[in-house]
Amino acid sequence: MKKIWIIANRELASYFDSLIAYVMIILFLGMSGFFTWLFGSSIFLINQASLQVFFGISYWTLFFFIPAITMRSLAEENKSGTIELLSTKAVSDREIVVGKFLANLILVAIALVCTFPYYITVALLGNIDHGATLGGYFGLILMSSMYISIGLFASSLTNNQIVAFLLALFIGIFFQVLFDVMATSFTGNISGVFDFLSSRTHYESLSRGVIDSRDLIYYFSFIIAGLLLSETMLSKRNWQH
After folding, report:
1. How many CA atoms does the CB half-sphere of 94 hold within 13 Å?
2. Which of 65, 82, 99, 148 is least enclosed, having the fewest CB within 10 Å?
3. Please, are residues 141 and 109 in contact by the beta-carbon 8 Å criterion?
């Protein structure tokens, strides 16, 4: 566990040293704040003490931001050769993958913590549903974790960061949009399968404050699958080298 935290701290420090973390957090706060408070169906327009607008915006902003921060995690290590250096220091491929996963998740968590003033402000404006709000944040963490694991897998497949970014988006778009579209295009059991595969179905359930075991199984299954696939690809690439 100590090695995992060392890798996570190293990765997180590299984000802040290269200003990636600051840019990501500022852009996330800027976009989510603009659409939550000032534009379109803002909080003031719907006239409700609710953060559902924020959760709806964050569902999309994080979808695009996460591939941008994970694209370098393994691709850059493979390109520069530092992944082999890590492997020679008695650090397992699993520890590398989990350490980088935690670093990315902590970065997302920091960005979300910075939005707590939204929560406090809305709570002061009216009777906010605290259960739904906490469920929404929990849903964002689970959704982000799934896309981070997908991003790491995409990053493990290539040495090119841009390719990793596009590949992560391509895989993610199925869960974000296409499975939802397919669910409405079919009927019966097939529609039910696609609906279950859609991230929106599970995220919206959590953002209403409903903690369902099916939602937890869905997210944790894809998180574990993404991490295992990343570990497998990393092991394969190291073996080839």
Report:
1. 5
2. 82
3. yes
- Backbone CA torsion sign across 25, 26, 27, 32: positive
Question: Which residues, at least 6 apart from 126, have a Cβ–Cβ distance to it below 8 Å?
Answer: 48, 49
87 vs 52: CA distance, rounded Å: 44
Is residue 168 a contact partner of residue 68, using CB atoms and an 8 Å limit?
Answer: no
- Local structure of residue 27 (DSSP, 8 states): H
**Per-residue pLDDT at 1 exceeds 60:** yes
pTM of the model: 0.90
| pLDDT tens-digit series, residues 32-73 | 888 777 765 556 565 666 788 889 889 999 999 999 999 988
Residue type, 174: F
Burial of 212: CB neighbours in 10 Å, binned 0-12, 13-18, 19+:
exposed
Quick check: 144 pLDDT over 90?
yes
Q: From CA 22, how far away is CA 60, in angstroms rounded?
A: 19
Burial class (CB in 10 A: 0-12, 13-18, 19+), 64: middle
What is the maximal distance between C-alpha atoms in the chain? 60
Q: Name the token pair of 230.
A: 């990343």
Segment 71-97 mean pLDDT: 72
